[in-house]
Amino acid sequence: MPPVLEVENVTKVYKSSGRGVEGASLQVERGEVFGLMGPNGSGKSTLLGVVSTRIKPDEGSFRVCGLDGVRERRKVRAKLGLMVDRPTHYGDLTAWANAYLFASFYGMDEKKAERALAELFEYFDLAEYRDDKAKTFSYGMGKKLALIEAMAHDPELLLLDEPSVGLDYTSQLAYQRKIRDLASSGTAIVLASNQVDEVETLCDRVAFLHRGRIVTTGTPDELISTLEGLQRVVARLRVPVEYDPVLEVEGVRQVVTEGRDLVIHCEERSGIVADVVAALVRAGGDIVTLSVRRPNLEDVYVKLTGEALRDEDQPAG
Amino acid sequence: MKINPPDSYWKKDVVLFFSRRFALALKFLYPIALIVPVAASGIPPQYGAAVVGIVALMAGTFGAGESLTTDINDGILVRLAMTPRSPYRITFEILAVNAVLDFLQLLPALIITYILHPAPAIWLAATTFAVFLTLFAANCIGIFIANFTTSPADVLLYATAILFPLIYLSGFFRNRHPTGALATIRDFIPFSYMNDALGVVFGLRGTFTPAEIFVYPAIICALVAAAVCLTGPKLLSPRT
After folding, report:
1. pTM score, whole prediction
2. What ipTM was reported for this prediction?
3. For chain B, which residues make up each domain, given as ranges?
């Protein structure tokens, strides 16, 4: 059976910014959850835009369920479920009417649509708000409505751009459970996210994007195992300081800032945490909290690219 | 036929149209407020006809262009276009439903005008049809403009630039009795048929027969609509 999604050397560069995606190739199998990770501007959304048929690639090709993504766009769209990073709805229509409109556009008949939507509204705790106008919804409720619209027609390939941002904890758990259920029933899922925990929990394989290029692909465990013998020390400082002394500590590989946190990637050797703390204190740092953690996908990204996965102005965690 | 929940673009627009009561009242009052005082006054007939015509042109062109650019900016239109539904069909539905809803808004004012200026039934029918076709053509212009801009303010600018020469050529105010090339061009502009029919309602002698008013602008509008629907893929594509 061919992969649900085959992307070959896809390039799309925006003339205005010079950013985009270059030479991207990947495959996603039936029932697989595939993660795309990379900082803002790394090309995740552009790649999803190409695969969703929203953006025409400059070069390369892609196939969805064997259909040519450039030449057979409408047939491809029928196979896709799509959630964009900033979902919008018709504010003066009810949540139900919005979802029903999309279900109809995907060719669902009335009975099928009503059954699928009722189930999803119940699942995502929106049943009691189904007759409220979409403009009264909070950001998180709007995201859940967008998830319902993406899933209702039982797509073969589900494309999700930052799906969990804005969801409360309970909704995140419900959404993650749903993703695993869909994957078990054969849906292929591509997930663009920088939520490390979410990607590690959900994804069977992950691709890292850096400046428009896929730098590596693998299972989360494979990728993290490349950092064996390393650990991350996360220090939250009251006031940011120059951290050059920390870089001089023996065994420290890299230091990056993530929001208010200073993340120090270092070898696992005895005494290194004390040395790092001492260096921080020497640099004038007032440590508010300190934690030592096993490496995660974020550390793999830093090791491969030398850059943080999240922007400095984005809160870590 | 079930309208709500909507299963097509046109039903969605109908539901939205009737969902905002205050806005709905304003939509019906606006043409009445503009047209009825003019129709009730002793204004020369050609100007009475021109005012009704201008209101129809503005309602059609600005309404379609502005609502479309708003939806394009929201991203909702592009999201809808990512479904398997044909962009040509969506564009046609946008065009048709906007024209019909604009016509509904204008109808009360038009009926009051007919009461104030009774005319033979065939002329009333021809005038009503010509007004609808004008709204249809004006919506085509609005949709065409939305292909090139996402700014509602730009829509006003572009619409004015397109409508002014068409208003001149249609003989609303000047160029009322064109000859030669100007007369030929006028025959290809749907608005001129409406202006002529409204002139008859207001008491002028018409240039076209009712049959011509039924047939010619309908053919022209069908061709223009087909051309506008062909822009569907571009209209519904993301703007960068």
Report:
1. 0.87
2. 0.90
3. 28-235
